[in-house]
Amino acid sequence: MRLYISIPYKGDDKEFAERSIAAHNKYDAQDVRVITSHDVTDPASPTETMVGKRIEALLTCESAVFAFGWPQTLECQLEFDACNRYGIPYKTDVHI
User: Which residue segment(s) compose the domain that 74 sits in?
Assistant: First the structure.
């Protein structure tokens, strides 16, 4: 199973990376492949490119988790909308 974890980026690269590591530590298992928004984000790319890559990665997953604070960023809101439009089950406001 592939699990997408949406982590809000608030301008702090270190916190973004640390939350991604914490997400992998929390959810990685033999039968679960974790992909976080940090894993597919390239800070050198334009925002619209990064959003596209994040949505593309999300659509390859069977379920999603939205980390606490997700409604505060447009990228996470778009990922949430994609889950609803494509019927991907999700959990919200998970502390990571």
Answer: 2-94
Query: Exposed, middle or buried: residue 20 (CB in 10 Å: 0-12, 13-18, 19+)?
Result: buried
- Residue 89, CB half-sphere, CA atoms under 13 Å: how many? 5
Q: Sign of dihedral through CA atoms 54, 59, 63, 81?
A: positive
Count of the separate structural domains present in the chain? 1
pLDDT tens digits, one per residue of 7-51: 998 878 898 889 999 999 999 888 899 999 999 988 788 888 889
Q: pTM of this prediction?
A: 0.90
Give me 22's structure tokens.
């914490």
Instruction: List, for residues 42-76, the tens digit of each pLDDT value.
Output: 878 888 888 999 999 999 999 999 999 999 999 99
* Neighbouring residues of 55: CB distance < 8 A, sequence distance ≥ 6: 78, 79, 82
